[in-house]
Design goal:
Strand order of the largest sheet of chain B: 6-7-8-3-9-10
Largest sheet of chain A: 5 strands, mixed
CATH class of the largest domain in chain B: Alpha Beta
Radius of gyration of chain A: 26 Å
Oligomer: heterodimer
Order of helices and strands of chain B: EEEHEEHEHHHEHHEHEEHEHEEHEH
Number of strands of chain B: 14
Strand content of chain A: 5-15%
Helix content of chain B: 25-40%
Helix content of chain A: 55-70%
Number of helices of chain A: 14
Strand order of the largest sheet of chain A: 2-1-3-4-5
CATH topology of the largest domain in chain B: Rossmann fold
Structural class of chain A: alpha/beta
CATH superfamily of the largest domain in chain B: P-loop containing nucleotide triphosphate hydrolases
């Protein structure tokens, strides 16, 4: 092991543990936010991507789908041929809900008592609950429409029975508990914010207090300084992840369905993004306040454009395009899929690759800038 | 084989339009205390920072302990101790933790740092305060901690950038005693003496050199050699006594009253170049070979204007007189 890394990391740890106020903040804020967000925030959703499996392929089934199309809750994003495809689309998060119309739909409809299956991705309860009630509403309206039509044709039968009945199944988060959706988000936000803010202020503090002057004239190489200084924050970030996961799991009953090792490894990859942002901010800022503000400026768009609170589907196309620039977006998809859906790595590989590229890119840019500022 | 520990030739450092250092050449022998003096903004700090490789020169070459600062900065840094103008220890670490940190990042091993740190804390007189946070030390103790951390790896060259600015006179005195003690005691050779090149094996190789910048003339006069900086250049360089001798016979000291009248009378004399107040007396610098003439004229002038002359005589020049004279050119 490099002989200069240990002293730097040790020094950094002493400083962290001596700054009691910051230390308490690091440990308490994640839990506070978890409780705050776990118990709050629900909102209305539109344009939920819907997958449709129409086995009936009849005028009747098309008429039902038209009524889905007419309501702006849903957007028929996929027309598929098998249930396996539905599973795949929902697992990957491409579709949030699916409608399956059985082959005998038209016949049953004429006999009275046709059934339609409605499948819902419940890992985002906000959109799921809206989708659920929307689906029920649309079906009821459609049934009424059909009844009215039939009345006008026959003009007789007064014993009304709704011809269509929607049977819903909620996947992944069957009770639609907001907390289960929020906790993974909190993990992402904490990793990002804590890592970025702490890194930025710890580097800027060296400049602010003049200690960088001494560091520069030691034989420490820039990369040693970066790695040595960031190490404690990686460890703290790791600890925060475990902390939030534990409280989320045992207090809020959030499931951990995916592989815990994978969750931790990918969380550390994401943590590097936060550290990189912090390091980058430290090369822009001259004071700790400036560093804090710089980080906040990146934090807010990250939170709002990553699907943390508001589903990306609900956003205008421009903002949705911007969201691809937010590393947090990818991490949220990853951590939610891993925790709630228990998917395997290949299901989320696009997001994993995107997130890793961001981590490497941001960290490299920051390290280069940091080096340049030292000279 | 060179006898110099520090060799800098034609150093230049430009910041955009400002020529902070503009052609400085510097040679420092082992065991020498070299003083860089000059007013604020003369380029002292920039020169220091160039010497330690914290800044890249716009032009020029520097060799420290036989290593090229541009190419072998790491080797150079393991040979030097640098104390910047600003206190640059960690205020939230204790005295010993600070020393340990800087000892370890500069290559002292697990077993070496503690005895060495205690030795150096003993040397600067901070051993009793080793567990105190650096932020809670007095100004003078902070400077000593800085010195201790610069010395802990037994550097062969110590660069002190205005170490006594803002420090009380007693502490300044203490600090200088330490510096003098340091250069007068032979240094234990570092463990890796075989990589040091020729310098280490030369006769005086075991002695520490010090480059110190200071705005104080009393400190400058303690240095073995002084370089006077102005506008990024060293405009005069020699031992304090040689520098002083340049003005031999040209400084008159005048004591009397009222001071205003004395000053006015002196200024009127065409052979007088400059008048400076030194407490209750004036130092009058006269043109070359004119001191006797001025002595006679001035006394008469003052008396006839109604003033009183208690004493008027030729005095040995102080370093301050020399620097004031140099600053004007």
């Amino acid at each position: 092991m490099n002989s200069r890394l240990m002293p730097i990391t040790r020094k950094e740890f002493i400083q962290i543990f001596r700054d009691t106020r910051t230390l308490i903040m690091i440990l308490v804020i994640p839990i506070m936010q978890l409780f705050l967000l776990g118990y709050s925030a629900t909102n209305d959703v539109r344009n939920i991507p819907l997958a449709v499996l129409d086995r009936s392929r009849s005028p009747e089934s098309r008429s039902l789908l038209d009524s889905y199309r007419a309501a702006d809750y849903f957007r028929i994003a996929y027309s598929v041929d098998s249930e396996a495809e539905i599973e795949d689309l929902i697992s990957k998060g491409n579709a949030r809900a699916a409608v399956i119309i059985p082959p005998d739909y038209a016949r049953k409809l004429n006999e009275g008592g046709a059934q339609v299956a409605f499948i819902l991705d419940g890992s985002d309860p906000t959109s799921a609950s809206t989708a659920l009630s929307a689906a029920q509403l649309i079906s009821q309206a459609h049934s009424t429409e059909l009844l009215t039509e039939r009345f006008s044709r026959t003009g007789s039968n007064l014993r009304v029975k709704p011809p269509v009945e929607v049977r819903t199944t909620v996947w992944y988060n069957p009770d639609l508990i907001s907390a289960h959706f929020m906790i993974p988000g909190v993990i992402g936000m904490i990793l990002y914010a804590i890592a970025a803010i702490l890194t930025a202020s710890s580097v800027v503090r060296e400049r602010e207090r003049g200690t960088i002057e001494q560091l520069i004239v030691t034989p420490i190489r820039p990369w040693e300084l970066i790695v040595g200084k960031l190490m404690p924050y990686v460890i703290l970030g790791f600890f925060n992840t475990i902390e939030v996961l534990a409280v989320g799991h045992w207090w809020f009953g959030m499931p951990i369905r995916g592989d815990l090792g994978l969750i931790i490894i990918l969380s550390i990859v994401f943590l590097i993004t936060g550290l990189g942002i912090g390091l980058f901010a430290s090369t822009i800022a001259n004071t700790q306040q400036e560093a804090m503000l710089t980080v906040w400026m990146t934090l807010l768009p990250s939170i709002f454009l990553s699907g943390f609170f508001f589903p990306l589907e609900a956003m205008p196309a421009f903002l949705r395009a911007l969201s691809y620039l937010m590393p947090l977006r990818y991490y949220l998809v990853i951590i939610r899929s891993l925790l709630l859906k228990g998917v395997s790595l290949d299901m989320i590989q696009t997001d994993v690759i995107a997130m890793t590229l961001f981590a490497v890119g941001i960290m490299t840019a920051a390290a280069l800038r940091f080096r340049k500022r030292l000279d | 084989m060179t006898d110099y520990l520090v060799q800098a030739t034609n150093l230049k450092k430009y910041f955009k339009t400002v020529k902070a250092v503009d052609g400085v050449s510097l040679h420092v022998k082992p065991g020498e205390i070299y003083g860089l003096v000059g007013s604020d903004g003369a380029g002292k700090t920039t020169t220091m920072r160039l010497l330690v490789g914290a800044l890249k020169p716009s032009a020029g070459e520097i060799t420290v302990c036989g290593f090229d600062v541009a190419k072998q900065v790491e080797q150079v840094r393991s040979q030097i101790g640098y104390l910047s103008q600003r206190f640059s220890m960690y205020e939230d670490l204790s005295v010993l933790e600070n020393i340990r940190f800087f000892a370890e990042v500069r290559g002292l091993s697990q077993t070496e740092w503690l005895p060495r740190s205690m030795e150096i804390l003993e040397f600067v007189g901070l051993a009793d305060f080793k567990d105190r946070r650096a932020g809670q030390l007095s100004g003078g103790m902070k400077q000593k901690l800085g010195l201790a951390s610069a010395l802990v790896t037994r550097p062969r060259l110590l660069l002190l950038d205005e170490p006594t600015t803002g420090v009380d006179p007693v502490t300044r005195q203490d600090f200088w005693q330490l510096v003098i003690k340091l250069v007068s005691t032979p240094l234990h050779l570092p463990q890796n003496s075989e990589n040091l090149g020729g310098v280490a094996r030369s006769a005086e190789g075991g002695r520490v050199s010090v480059i110190i910048s200071t705005p104080y003339m009393d400190e400058a006069s303690r240095c073995h050699r002084v370089g006077f900086m102005k506008n990024g250049k060293i405009i005069a360089e020699d031992t304090p006594s040689v520098l002083r001798s340049q003005l031999n016979g040209r400084i008159l000291e005048l004591r009397g009253s009222p001071l205003n009248l004395l000053r006015h009378a002196a200024h009127k004399d065409s052979d007088v170049e400059d008048v400076q107040a030194f407490g209750d007396r004036l130092h009058i610098r006269v043109s070359e070979g004119k001191s006797q003439a001025v002595l006679k004229k001035l006394k008469k002038e003052i008396v006839s204007a109604g003033g009183q002359v208690d004493e008027l005589r030729v005095v040995p020049p102080a370093l301050e007189d020399v620097f004031i004279a140099l600053s004007e050119h």
